[in-house]
Amino acid sequence: MRILVAEDDKPVASFMKKGLEAESYAVDVVYDGDEALFMAQEYDYDLMVLDLVLPLRHGIDVLRQLRSERNPLPVLIVTGRTAVGERVKGLDEGADDYLCKPFSFDELSARIRALLRRASGPPELILRVGDLELDRVKHEVRRAGRRVELSPKEFALLEYLMQNAGRPLTRAMIVEHVWNFSFDSMTNVVDVYVNYLRRKLEDASPHKLIQTIRGVGYGISENA
Questions:
Q1: CA nearest 75: which of 45, 49, 114, 46?
Q2: Is 59 within 8 Å of 53 (Cβ atoms)?
Q3: Among 42, 112, 205, 208, which is least packed by CB within 10 angstroms?
Q4: Is the previous residue joined to 102 through a cis bond, with omega within 30 degrees of 0?
């Protein structure tokens, strides 16, 4: 899952980015309204966390422009403005939720999960491919009932593969959804992390699930 954070307070932005990356999200951070609008228009995000008081362009103007373009990107407003009128205005302009500062990271995370579930329809909390299970709430992975310990980035990669089971994914698609834009897409890090997953998930099993699709990238399937 990819999240865009638009927040001009750099310590707050860093706090959100580190926390969300620890929960296996790919996170990009921008610090002004013009860049927030550009990134939301040009790239594929699953959700945006939007501060209202941004340099160059107000958060409400960013939101209003996106909705005028019928952009369905879920938007969570995070702001220090606590007046009821401000919250009503943000929601009326098309925000999906509103969180006032200061806030706990646990609440931010819970609201993001709720918005992502709402955007994707009925929640699929446990992903399954063959005897492989991934619990998206508990952040647990099991193969044939055996618990497998994964790093946050390994978990995010496996989650993306399992969300798209049976579908070939290019390295560029994987980079876009699992890593952020500071990542050098020309490196072989995707191949390295796929090998990590294979060692942890497949070395002890005769049935391989992760496919290498020549000339394309990778996929996962019960019939690999």
A1: 49
A2: yes
A3: 42
A4: yes
- Identity of residue 136: R
Residue for token digits 């646990």? Answer: 106
The whole-angstrom separation of Cα 191 and Cα 217 is 9
The CA-atom distances, in angstroms, between 118 and each of 16, 106, 114 are: 21, 18, 6
Look at strands 146-148 and 140-143 and give their pairing.
Answer: antiparallel
How far CA 60 is from CA of 1, 38, 70, 91, 202, in Å, comes to 24, 15, 15, 10, 48
> Going edge to edge, which strands form the sheet with 26-30?
26-30, 2-6, 47-50, 75-79, 97-100
Q: Catalogue the E-assigned strands of 39-91.
A: 47-50, 75-79
Q: How far is CA 32 from CA 5, 51, 56, 93, in A?
A: 10, 9, 6, 19
pLDDT of residue 186: 62
User: What angle, 0 to 180 degrees and rounded to 10, lies between the N-to-C axes of helices 33-42 and 59-68?
Assistant: 30
Q: What does the block give as tokens for 155?
A: 């978990």
Residue 14: phi and psi, rounded to 5, are -65, -40
d(Cα 59, Cα 77) in Å, to the nearest integer? Answer: 8
Decide: helix, strand or coil at residue 167. Answer: coil
Confidence class of residue 120 from pLDDT cuts 50, 70 and 90? low
